[in-house]
Every structure is written in structure tokens, then in C-alpha cells.
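Inputs:
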Amino acid sequence: MRYADLFGATRREAPRDIESINGQLLYRGGFVDQTAAGIYTWLPLGVRVLERVERIVREEMAAVGAQEIIMPKLHPKEYWEQTGRWDRVDVLFKLESRTGKSYALGASHEEIVTPLAQKFIHSYRDLPKAVYQIQTKFRDELRAKGGVLRGREFGMKDCYSFHATREDFLQYYDQMLVAYRRVFERCGLTATRVRASGGDFTENISDEFHVETPSGEDTLRICDACRIGVNVEIAATQQACSTCGGALRETTGIEVGNTFDIDTKYSGAINFTYTDEAGVAQPVIMGCYGIGTTRLVGAIVEAHHDEAGIRWPASVAPLAAHVVVVVPRDAEKRVRVMGAAQDLMSQLSHAGIEALLDDREDTSTGAKFADADLIGIPVRIVVSDRALGEGGVEVKYRDAAEGSVQPRETVVAALVEAKGRTH
Amino acid sequence: MRYADLFGATRREAPRDIESINGQLLYRGGFVDQTAAGIYTWLPLGVRVLERVERIVREEMAAVGAQEIIMPKLHPKEYWEQTGRWDRVDVLFKLESRTGKSYALGASHEEIVTPLAQKFIHSYRDLPKAVYQIQTKFRDELRAKGGVLRGREFGMKDCYSFHATREDFLQYYDQMLVAYRRVFERCGLTATRVRASGGDFTENISDEFHVETPSGEDTLRICDACRIGVNVEIAATQQACSTCGGALRETTGIEVGNTFDIDTKYSGAINFTYTDEAGVAQPVIMGCYGIGTTRLVGAIVEAHHDEAGIRWPASVAPLAAHVVVVVPRDAEKRVRVMGAAQDLMSQLSHAGIEALLDDREDTSTGAKFADADLIGIPVRIVVSDRALGEGGVEVKYRDAAEGSVQPRETVVAALVEAKGRTH
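Outputs:
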């Protein structure tokens, strides 16, 4: 991929209404564009990051046996009336068709997935089951802020599990917590489990996963010994860890996932039961598990950046290497350097390494380096007359202060080895 | 994947309001569920087919240099007012936020992509460019019919290209026609290019791609010699081929793709120009290219089925093989047959072949065979005491009348070979 061919270039400044660090860097780096407040377009570099995040989520969902489905975004009013949430959820976008039918735009999918599962789950033999989707959600936020952290339209993985007993649910809930930790770790994030309120979803306690950042929306009190915390919204006065009694550290966090014990709240609303081994109808127990996929990209940027730009973890970087060509004025040297860059790109391509090639001739090397830092691909490779003279190319990691000249083959081999580690 | 674990089973009957063959078979086969008229949920088997179709589309879009983006579904009213389509497009769903902002739900994305491209395309050096997305579209249809062929909410690949000159556009348009032919061929469809009206998109002529089926919504007149046709909606009286003068055959077709010469219709509306080599501002020329991805799945079913069910082309089949176990009553034989099925599943898995295992004990072999025919995976493998006695398993292709007993290794090797051909 040549930088010059890329749809969506870097930009010097973000609009003033994009206040957050993630919004500014994703906008300036050419990952997103803002169509309206809280409504973003994902550009090719952004789509690549999102795809890598989504793949990690899919792999971990598959690991806990959840099956992918795609539910609709248009939800007929009847579904939301059955649970009483049509009038109660204030962020619900509502619309009417030409023929007078009323719909909500899916803000979450309990209302759809519960009657869906009811069609297929009849007996204890059909349980447990878990389904998930990666789906656009809509929320009529009064004020959309925080870049891609809180949009009116955003990507979310939502998973729903169905169980015969509380014991089975609790066991699966623990498996899901492990899957969640793995998702966040693989995305380069340290997320802390935090007890919180269930919001509109349930009266039971829920868990949130938070990434600590100075810009976090939520105030948390965390026990570093137990790696667990509490959201002050439900326990404003709690000063000590409920497990070990130790002191709690106050911090701020970005919520990147949540898990809810919704028990029989939704199954009960539509009388969704299964027949147990004795032939008796029993209520189906449910769990619900969300990860904001577009929000996760924002959280990664909040956690991994410096003054020059983004520092993507290798696991979610849009490409594995950023090749910058220092184009010489001298015609003969120019041919040699451009040829070496092309050779390097071929070698990388054959080795299965995706790289961005910046061989712009109308742009200064300084500006190209600044763009590379802003975009934040983990490895920068500089092809220059000087480096070729020293027998190689200059490799600089995004998080290192200095680079070093290495033979091309060594560089390619190191990237192949790194790719093996992150996959 | 065990059939018993699958979310979404086969069903004897489809609701009466699902009239079309594709809707009935996709519903009965456990590929989709109907949430409301024209609004479908894609179940795990359906998601697999859709993913395979989308992958083919992505590969062919990449082959013509189109880059993937994701535009929003919520379109602020201002965008649609600028082109005068807010009031003119009757299928536009409209809604208002709590704070009084008006949005359309994206029925197509010219209004969004044109100002987006304007942000990045300034000079002739920035041209040509092409972007696409695979995106949910919304249309407020008065009557949603035809199964997944005409929904109120559906998946679509829409691509937009930007050019400096008409010549460059026309050249790219021809490349896109080739890409379209490849997409349809790879999906197992014979699609005919048909001249049609541009609808709400353009006053210029557009091309449609149609798959001939008895259930097609459109009436076409086709020249078999030139492999080109005309939609009667624009040429009701045309009786001869405009190219060779030969007779036209009247038939019906399902539209699976369309390509539009939108020229400067949308760029002109927002004064989107580029600077040419002489420094003069020139209008940007645009093309627009759609493929209904969910509709494509429906068209494949309309073209590939028989009375017993679907007959998926291997390239888009949800899984490569359907393993049916004839479970013996005798305990000793039962252990041997179940063990052989497990061994086969392991062999297939190691060879990278995804298979569905139907080892239900409470279901008759006849019912399992009927489900296999309905679901329509191209290869059925029967593991039974009888076949084991004959030294193998029984292999039957979905489109063959009879099966034959072959050694397990031969079967696995044939599937590996077939996989190589379709990828």
C-alpha cells in the first residue's frame, strides 16, 4: 500500500469540537473522519485496526463456544413494549415508516435475542447456548463526546448466553471473564474488573472492565492487590477492598466491556421457559456480555500514544511496517534508493508482511517522519542513500528513541518473527 | 461443529408471509429467522454463507484498487438536502433525535461519500481513487417481499470511484464490469449485463446484472449471442439486439448488482472540483457500483435448489461437508461407529476442512438425510456400520443421485483438493 494511493491522508489539525485525545489522533492520523457530532466514518487505515480488533474478539468468543449471528438494527416497537423499555430507555432512537409502523434503532438486543432463542430452545437438551454479534448500535446521546468513545452510532460485540440453572450461568460467566481478559490483553490493554450498577439492563450487580487513563469518564476505586475495583457510582463511600480489606486507590477509567447477570429479567417478560429432565417448565437464565469494538480502538489510542502520535500495539496495528523513502535529488542515487525500496516492499510482501510505503517526492523527510509517528505503525524502516551505504536500512521502533541500520534480510526476518508472536 | 450444538435448527415450515423460494429455504434450513416483515436475523449457518460471499466481494474490490471504508448509517438531513434527495427519495427512513436533529437512515451513500472525498481529493495527483463499504442499508418499502431479496434492512457493497476525466472513468467502469462478472461467477451465478434506468441515482443510463430465474422481479429481453440484455422498464418495445440485430429472448431476472455513471451529479451539487495540471479547477467525475450482499445469498438459493432444499455452490457453502452418523442400536457397534465419526471429524479438522456433524440419537436417519438435503452442503458423508463394513464411509454429492463407499483418506483428500480449487 502506497501512502500516496491511500484514501484519507494525515491532517494537521482536528476540528475544535473533537476534544478527546483518541478523537484528535484518529482524525489527524487518517483513521476516521467526522460526518457529524458523534458520527464517524472509518477510513481505510481505521478499518484495518477495527478488523484486527474484531478478529481478536471473534477468536475469543469462539473459544467460549459463542456462535456468531447478525440481528437487525430496526426493532419493531412491539419487542420493546414487551419488556417495558420502549418508554424507559431515554437514548432510544425511534422512527416511523410510511405505513405507520414504529421502530427503535437497536441500542441493545435483549428484546430481539430473547424471543429468537425462544424459537430454538425448548428442552434442557438445548442448553446451554451462547450467541454474539458484532453490530452497529445507536444511542440518542444528548452530547456526543470523547471521540469514538461515545458516539451516536458505534460498533459493539454483544453476546447473550442461555442456561438451565444459576450454577451453569455462573460457571459460564467466569469463563467469559477469562475471555474478556484475553481480548483486552491481546489488544495491548490492562483492564481492571470493576463492580458497577446494571443501568437499564438489570437490577443485579454487573461487572465492568476499565482501562485506566487520565481521560477516563468514570471514577473508580481499585484494590491493586486483588486487581478488582468498584465504580463510585454504586459505592461512593467505599474506602476499603471488600475482599482483602486493603486501601483503595482512586483513579479514572474508560469502560471497554461489561458483563451482566440478567437472570430471568428478559426471559420472564416473554415467558421463555425450557422443559427440565422431569418434564417441568423452568425459566431460562440469561447472561449478557458487551464489548464496544469502536470504543476499544479509542481506548487503545488513549492508552498508547505520545506527543507525536499513536503507538499501536503490534496486535492491532493497521500495518506491520511503515517504509519511508528519503528520496535523493541526484538522479542516479534516486533510481538506486527507489529500487531498494521496491525490493524491500517485494520481500515484505512475499513474507506476508503488510507495509505502508511513503515514497512521496513533494514532501520533506521531516514531514514524512512526523506522519509516521502520528500514524503510529510499530516499526519504521527508512530507505536512504546513507543507510544503503552502510549496508542496509534504518529500523526504528515507534517506542524507541533511536534507530539502527540493519541488513534488509535481518529486518524482514525480525518482522516475520514478530508476526508469529502476535498471531 | 455439531448439529446438536448449533444455534438455529431446521424447521418444517416457513411462515405463510414468506412466499419466495429463497426466503422459505433460508428460513427452513436455519440460515435466517424473520424478526418482522422484511427484517431478518442471520443465524450461524447464514452468517457463514454471508461471510464467504463478502470475502469474494472484498477480494474483487481489492483487485480493482478499491479501498474499504465504513460510512455511518445515520445521515444528517443537511447532506440529503444539498442534493435535493431528502424529499425526493420515497424509501428514505427519517428520524429525529431528542434534541431535534433530523437524520435519514442510509439508503445509499452518495450524499456522504462525496463530501468525504472532497476533503482528501484536491489535485489531479489525488485521482483516480475508489472506495467501498459493505454496509447495512435501509429502505422504507411499502411491501417487503421476496425473502432476503427485498428487505427493509439489507447488506450491500457500495463502491464509489472518482476521476479526473470521462476517459479515465470509462476505463475504470470497464474494469468494474469485469470485477462484477468475477464476483457472480465465483458465487456460482451466471449474470447477464442489462441496460436499465438510473432510478433515483442518475439520469444517465446504468447497467444492471441479472440472474435469470423464474421468480425474477424484472422482465428482461436478452440477446444470447451478445450476452447482453435490456430491462423492459426502459425499452418496452425493443425487439432486436442493438448490437447484432438478432432476436431478443424474453425472460425474468433477479438484479444482483448495478453500476451507475453518475458523472458530476453529486460532485456538482457540492462544487467538488480538483485542480488540473494547468492549475484550473475541474469537476470530479464519479461512478457508483452496488452489489446487494444479502440479496446475492437469496439469488444463489433461487438459482441453486431442488425440491429437497438448497444446493450451495462449494465457493459459498456454509461448511464443506455434512457428516451424518447412522447410530446403531447395538452398544458395541454404536461405540465403533461413533468413534469412526469422531476420527473422521479430527481428520477433516486437521486438513482444514470445516464439517457439520449430525450425530443426533433421537432423530431418524431419514430425517437427518432430509435436513442435510435442506441445508444443502455440497458433500454428505455417511458414517454407518454398513459402510464401515465395506471399508469406508458413504460419500454423496448434493447434486448426485447416488453415493458411493470410499476409504476415509480418499474422501478427506478429495475435499482438500476441492478446497484448493474454490479458494
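Remarks. The two ends of chain A are 21 Å apart (CA to CA). Chain A has a mean pLDDT of 95.
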